[in-house]
């Protein structure tokens, strides 16, 4: 098989060997249901507790504030729907941004149909939420602000601390979708005044199908799944013990390696950005130059169609993406790129490359050299490019 260079780590990551190893006994040896009373089940129960503690510690939270879910999308749905239901007597106004993940945007649209009012904040050309606009959007009936920690497509990190402080000052709940940020950036829920936070295991070398919602003590949130007393009666269903164990191990690993790992990713990412912008004409970097996730690079190339570029990269053993994994089957340009002001034709020619610590500079050289050839070839077939070149 030809060499595979996997640069779609924002979509999902490889499960780390030590994570798989930690999970295996809970499929075959310690397979007891954590809710059972007999001693055999205590291994499972203790393992779930240990993971809960590890995750809470990584956020500066207490273990009673961590609720396991099936992933980031469920956590986002739970945070928005349950908060809306619990606080509707105070008001029915919610604030979010135009560049959120669809798990937030589609849930917000659903809430609008239930009689809630949602304000979708604009962002600047780098994808940063404007704090002045947020201040103006706050009303006496605002019950929830939901702004992501860092964007999944363009990597821009939001001023979460300032947003949290604003929310706290006005007595409004603050939720953040930290699916891309957790494990990549240090997060302290108290320092940032976060009331609820969503995260997912498979974005940080953990297994798929497991996530959590952090819910600050005192926040009135009802059950999301009914049927049993699991997760302190807030989410029914037998716990996914191997998944929880794997998630805990992945978080332990991510925290221990964060500084060194992200420093390497930043260096490799900057090398990639530098080469692309210098060597490929009519290219631009999307997202904030410095306030971005350590492993994220998102480019737009004029006179190029994103899907053709992805197919040709794939033929050369390179996995990339034109947006988020959840929308890669869609032919519409990314809502995030449109929100930062890109015209449709340029947004269509976008490429997201997300690294991991295993990617070396030699891999980047191969990727950029291949990309240059691909873009040259695609532009040579573009009548728009031909017309443009005639005029310039």
How many strands appear in the DSSP assignment? 12
Radius of gyration of CA atoms, rounded to a whole number? 22 Å
- Write down the overall mean pLDDT: 95
Strand content: 5-15%
Helix content: 40-55%
Element-level helix/strand string = EHHHEHEHEHEHEEEHHEEHEHHEHH
Approximate shape: globular
Number of helices: 14
The major beta sheet can be summarized as: 7 strands, mixed
Q: List low-pLDDT spans.
A: none
Distance between the termini: 43 Å
Strand pairing plus helix content: what structural class? alpha/beta
Q: Please state how the strands of the largest beta sheet are arranged side by side.
A: 2-8-7-6-5-3-4
Give a short overview.
The protein has 392 residues and is of the alpha/beta class.
Task: Draw up the topology in text.
Blueprint: E1 5-6, H1 17-23, H2 25-28, H3 42-59, E2 66-69, H4 72-87, E3 93-97, H5 102-113, E4 117-121, H6 131-137, E5 142-146, H7 160-169, E6 173-177, E7 196-200, E8 211-215, H8 230-233, H9 241-279, E9 283-285, E10 296-301, H10 306-315, E11 318-319, H11 335-339, H12 344-347, E12 350-354, H13 361-380, H14 383-391
Parallel strand pairs: 1-11, 3-4, 3-5, 5-6, 6-7
Antiparallel strand pairs: 2-8, 7-8, 9-10, 10-12
